[in-house]
Amino acid sequence: MTYHEFGTENKRVVLLIHPAVVMWDYFEYVIPLLEKDFHLIIPALPGYDSDQKDDFTSIEEIVAAIERWLKEKEIPEVGYRVYKKSVSEYALCTI
Hints:
The chain is α+β, with helices and mostly antiparallel strands.
């Protein structure tokens, strides 16, 4: 699984997880808006990663891998989620 990061100089972390059947760049329009204020982490989920040809495993395995990666990078907590509201509208919510 490849992790794409933007705005790494920012303290507040947003983890963006793309839905099934699309790639990580699904968030290409919100990245420029959020990277100014947030450290964005966007994993390219297995089966949808153009850099690594791996198969989708399970939600549980993917979550465990993301949690391990966050611990390894010493990212203590992710404080925000982004919800897709419509084709061009997103909502940033505090966890």
